[in-house]
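Lab manual, section 2.4: Encoding a predicted structure.

Procedure: take the sequence of the chain (315 residues), apply the prediction step described in section 2.3, and record the output as structure tokens. A sample record is shown.
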Amino acid sequence: MSRKAAVIALTALAPISWGSTYFVTTEFLPPDRPLFTGLMRALPAGLLLLAVTRKLPQGAWWWKSAVLGGLNIGAFFPLLFLAAYRLPGGVAAVVGSVGPLFVVGLAALFLGDRPTVRSLLTAIAAAFGVSLVVLKAGAALDLVGVVAGLLSALSMSAGTVFTKRWGRPEGVGALALTGWQLTAGGLIILPIAFLIEGAPPALDSANLLGYAYLAFGNTAISYFLWFRGIGQLSASSVTLLGPLSPISAAVIGWAALGQALGPVQLAGMAIAFGATLFGQLNPRTPAVKKAESFSSAERNGQELSMDLEVSSVRR
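Recorded output:
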């Protein structure tokens, strides 16, 4: 296996892991606490990584970390969950699947990567495949929910592009940068969660197990792999791995929850997976840019569906 293929495979583990969020949320976590769940995903993981790396931002990286953490976590989670409550899960997933198209446009604007017909068609095919997997007949639309879903996808996409643009400080690894962003995002969500949802709920052993998995396996490790991949692959290549999340969620729902997969869903999975693979073939290598403290960039970014399937959780 080539080094690039290994990087792609490791990066792909992040959205595959995010696809398990729906199963863990419905089977292990208390209901009706999406913001608290977002907080428990981000802040413990961020604080753990800060303790492990023992590195804090310096100079301009204080505000850069706050911006990236806000885009990737702090703004993304509340907008995502607002869409989740206002839209059926499938509609929310389809709205979020336009993320690769946002990345193509933002990369052209901020990274100088001109969009190609190939990248646009691949992103459209991936979104179409996701729609076949998750969209149900007769799904209702809600303007506020649709706008929130689009803004959440835009937030993630902007986080991906700016992480690529800014890179990371010299001598700072991907693990430390991940910790900065998760901590900043968690601190943004903290007051919102308490204002909207009130005090934390009582937690049993199953809840604690679920939150531990989300914080450390589903977030700390997965985001580290995602950010690391962004530093070594093009922004469009990384974001086109996002459709693996709803595919993973659909497979887990079939295997663990007995949810049916019909011919339309299987065709959608094949289209989305094919677009994901095609997006990794011979991507155009962006020119190396000299930016302050530039090395390989890392990022969160595109969960495309990280929690888009969590949107199925009912009040």
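Check your result against the sample. DSSP finds 14 helices and no strands in the chain.
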